[in-house]
Design goal:
Blueprint lengths: L12 H30 L4 H21 L7 H17 L13 E3 L2 E3 L1 H20 L6 H21 L3 H18 L3 H22 L1 H11 L10 H13 L24 H34 L3 H25 L17 H18 L6
Antiparallel strand pairs: 1-2
Helix pairs in contact: 1-2, 1-10, 2-12, 3-4, 4-5, 4-6, 4-11, 5-6, 6-7, 6-11, 7-8, 9-10, 10-11, 11-12
Amino acid sequence: MKKGKKNTGQVDFVMFASILLLLAIGVVMVYSASSYISLYGKKDSMFYLKRQGAFAVLGIITMCIFMNYDYHKLKKYTTLLMIICIPLLFAVFAFEDVNGAQRWIRLGPASFQPSEIVKYVVVLYMAKSLDYKGEKVKSFLYGILPYLLVSGFYAGMILLEKNLSIASVIMIVTLIILFVAGGRAFHLFGIVTPSLFALGVLFIFSESYRRDRLLNFIDPWKDPAKNGYQLIQSLLALGSGKILGLGLGKSRQKAYYMPEPHNDFIFAIIGEELGLIGCLFIILLFLIFIWRGIRVASKTKDTYGTLLAIGITSVIAVQAIINIAVVTGSMPVTGVPLPFISYGGSSLVINMMAMGILLNISRQTESV
């Protein structure tokens, strides 16, 4: 178990720059992707830009606060946060569903998804607990199973909200943290992963809409007017953009062809307007972020910092991979937003808060 004296220095500038670049691109692309539906639906082409811009500023402020807050102090709030998350996850059922899913708590004009903060609270819990667990993590009964049960409990509650995507993110990140903490590969990839995969298949086929999504992913043109519609429009957008794109603001698919183009499928609009070059640039920024996140985790002076850095980096990485895979037709359609870029105020602020924690960890690493 790594232990060391705290030494506060400079933040990882490359990581800091990649985060701000992704955020800036996100605000611009939310405006570009939403301007048409915003003009005709809200009578203001800048409606979503104003909201996303305000949340971006709030997110930067939040990031700066946590960037200067010693991450070790989060340990004493972890249990309280875990407890608070439970009634929040139940509270969503008091509100009307949206397309059959109950994921949001609405407070006036604002809405909040408890699942967005739960995924980071699970990371905080695992980092804190595994820091004390030490070599016991090599035991399946005492080192692996307890974390699967805790993560599975929160993932199960999120699954009740009909949010399989975020539940999957939580379980994937759990496996990554356990592996980095020293869990045996056979336990994680020989027992747990096949079991979770089988469970996932069971959940997919237990709901008709999930089963339809899977079957339409294989051949979206089989039902082009309904279940395959969104993926087909995404592929049309990406194909239309070619190498250099049609130009910023010149997307055709955002004009009521693609449902809510500023949300989960915003990467398709980026591909249409900025082309393959724009898509590759976004992917490069995420790869740089992941590289710096792993680098920060490898240079921390304590196990808690290592696991916390890996967990936060993994949440962003897994979501980005899933979102891009969905938009490009590489996996079934699921509702995972693209971090920092997709429209969503509470999600953006929570992600930026997590970035502040990660940047604070970068300030307390071993000198190179």
